[in-house]
Design brief:
Low-confidence stretches: none
Bound molecules: flavin mononucleotide
CATH class: Alpha Beta
CATH topology: Rossmann fold
Helix content: 40-55%
Radius of gyration: 17 Å
Strand order of the largest sheet: 2-1-3-6-7
Number of strands: 7
Structural class: alpha/beta
Shape: globular
Length: 197
């Protein structure tokens, strides 16, 4: 199994970095080979431009898009790790979705709607929030963050998705954070099970 790990955090030390570190270790322990696309470190250009649109229409995307699309094609598993910002992914990751999951590569429109082209692939999404699970549920914001990435993006383009948010990560103690990180490891170990029919 091969994983493409897409990581979006601006710092060099954070809870999201700890998630990334556990994901790496768990992949190694489970014999899952991986590449890490650290979007800030790569200085990824997140703005979908008019030139991008033209090139995609001519099936000739720019080399940075092509490189990411090849990694997605080669991987059975996509792992996304990011903090929730304004109930959305950070802009750099939103731009990755805009520019990489293009029409003709990730989906195409047919008479009854969009059809996902990235079939037989799994995605594991780990996010973190400052707000607690209870605070988010009271406003329906837990559904907002989940639906955007799960149903609105990854399932639409074909992935079988598992989503896990870690709430109140800035408020809880080290012991609680350690339990969250162990759940990350368990989810990676469990991903080797076949996709349910
Ligand atoms: C620009 C920005 C916007 C944020 N928006 C939200 C938000 O909408 N909801 C929330 O619960 N936390 C929000 N936060 C808090 C982060 O989600 C939180 O600090 C992060 O998940 C903690 O993980 P880290 O230590 O890896 O950064 C925001 C933080 C920043 C910097």
């Amino acid at each position: 199994m091969k994983a493409c790990i897409v990581f979006a955090h601006e710092g060099d030390h954070s809870f999201n970095h700890e998630i990334l570190s556990r994901v790496r270790k768990a992949c190694e322990a489970s014999n899952i080979s991986y590449v890490v696309r650290d979007l800030y470190e790569m200085n990824f250009q997140p703005v979908f431009t008019a030139l991008d649109m033209k090139r995609i229409e001519h099936r000739n995307p720019s080399s940075d898009i092509e490189e990411e699309q090849s990694l997605i094609t080669e991987s059975d598993l996509l792992i996304m790790i990011y903090p929730v910002w304004w109930w959305s992914p950070p802009a750099i990751l939103k731009g990755y979705l805009d520019r990489i999951f293009t029409d003709g590569f990730a989906f195409r429109y047919e008479s009854d709607g969009p059809v996902g082209l990235l079939q037989n692939k799994r995605a594991l999404v780990f996010t973190s929030t400052r707000e607690s699970a209870k605070e988010m549920a009271e406003q329906g914001l837990d559904l907002v963050v989940r639906k955007q990435i799960v149903e609105g993006t990854l399932e639409m383009i074909g992935y079988e998705v598992e989503y896990q948010n870690f709430a109140a990560v800035t408020e809880v103690d080290d012991e609680a954070r350690e339990l969250m990180l162990r759940l990350v490891e368990r989810k990676i170990h469990a991903i080797r099970e076949p996709i349910p029919l």
